[in-house]
User: Fold these one by one.
Assistant:
Number 1:
Amino acid sequence: MINNDVLRRVRYALDLSDPLMIQIFALGGKEISREDLLDRLKKDSQEGFVELDNDAMDAFLKGLITHKRGTLEEKPGQAPKPELALNNNSILKKLRIALNFKEEDMLNTLQLADFKISKGELSAFFRLKGHKNYRDCGDQVIRNFLQGLTLHFRKSIE
């Protein structure tokens, strides 16, 4: 899925304002102006559209985790975890962490969008690449998860 689409849908689902989006990017280590943000929120058919690269998307997701859960304090002597390449699996995983969702929350969110998968299928998305049960997360899963998030978080707003 295109990073810009994910950014737009997360912003809408969580009802994030421009200043808060800029703050979230900053928490992830990426300084961004309001104009830059607005250009990245445009659809690819609109004039002034700027593609959101993987580094910026990763910074947003890290910032969202920090915004929602606080900073992670590393324990002395603990090696930092290796960074995951940004793909649908890592986007889904980082959203899960940011929202503090458990397996049931994830399944319920997908079910809100009338998309049903089993616990085994869901857990396969969170396995390390190379694990025998690892499975690539398709655009359809991300799209339905984001739709379910919108239904979950916006139902009380509207």
Number 2:
Amino acid sequence: MVNRGRRPRILAAVAVGLSGLVVTAFLIVQAFRERPATAAPPMPAPGASTPSEGAVPAGPGIATPLALPPSVPLRLDVPRIGVRTPLMKLAKNPDQTVETPPLRRAHEAGWYRLGAAPGSQGSAVIIGHVDTATGPAVFHRLGNLRPGDRVNVQRADGRTAVFRIDSVEHVGKNRFPTQRVYGDPGYAAIRLITCGGRFDRGSGHYTDNIIAFGRLLRVGGEEAR
């Protein structure tokens, strides 16, 4: 049995409670409205990759690696070893191995056009012969390069990409570091390659490769950071 005399007091209490909830909800909404907005971190664009290990991430006050848009390289100069050569374009042989310059043009080096252009992000690969049956070829002295030496590449866009040699390595062809040579290191890199080691008369080839690894230092006087 309901006590009718208590009903108004109960309804009044309920009304007061609802009013309190409304006021509380209003204050919470106001607090969110007045709180300073913070931007959500941007989502990467479709197909974009995350920075490679060792790459410098972009951000306020942080320099990104120097790199240029692609442009065909025309000439290679390596002052330390007296190299001044035009660059021919190389691709792949029918068996999918990388082309080398024809022996009749052994005094010239070639750029692997299926890779990065010198100055663009990625590994720009330049290949030259060490010698021929008649004498030294364009990269005969490649093994004399030292860390800190400069390599200049003149490009079709009128810019000269200047690289600094980081290391010069002598490796067996059966241990060729394919990923280090052709992979993208996250910056504008250059790789100069020739033959080395012992000449195998049975196969008609040298047993080793000499590889100079370098990175872009400056373009048009702008130093890479």
Number 3:
Amino acid sequence: MKAVYTWSAILVIVFASVVGDVLLAHAMKQVGDVGALRRRAGLVAVIRRTLGNPNFLFGVTAMAVAFFSLLFALSWGDVSLVAPAAASLTFIGNAVAAKIFLHERVDRRRWIAATLVAAGVALLAG
């Protein structure tokens, strides 16, 4: 039963991390070049524009959910399983989400890396 809790928490970590990463990336694309904005309007304008973006706030919330899920997972499972499984599955999820939601170009090398990572997770799980 402990394994079910651990893997459930890992899946929540992965989902929340991917959602958070996508939302934060989208928010920062909407904010634009923060260096140019800071030079033009100042640091307060950068902070105001960033914190005023709903995608940023939802992204930070999703990342907080991922963090607290990590704490639960570590209380149920071994760090030697939880940390690599969560990190590697998040890597795979980010590649897929970047392609689908952010319309990023994910080259063949990254897909090969994601496949190798998936194989590593399968070895961990078995």
Number 4:
Amino acid sequence: MMKTVPLTKTTLSTNLKGCLTALSLALFVHFSASAAVGVTPTDGHDPLSCAGPDTIHCIQVTKAQSSKKIKVRLYPDARQQVLFFSATGEDGKVYQLFLFDMDGRLVSQTNIRNRETTVLTNITEGNFLFEVFTDDERIENGQVTVR
């Protein structure tokens, strides 16, 4: 038999605290797992989505250098098929993304303006290095792995 308890301010507050505590713990575990595999949690990548034999593509982005003034995002879509590139910083700035293979050959290059997003498609499997520049200054770099 189920017992119905009227909600009071105290009961609601206690239930809300319990839910928030559970949510906080879940987020802590998720971001701890992301940090453990070397993936920046803010890049939109869920490390668990790359697990399993059913995955066609798995795109991981690891940042080596980050700018404090400019927010650069390089992240895969939910299906792990394409890579998004966006930048938020000063108005009027142009940001260049260079993607290199491990032999140093330029694989892809794209330019965007502040607060724009572009999509990189047809990414082959392998390991790549990326660099993001604005005004001939490197503001971000790292590695992209496509499995």
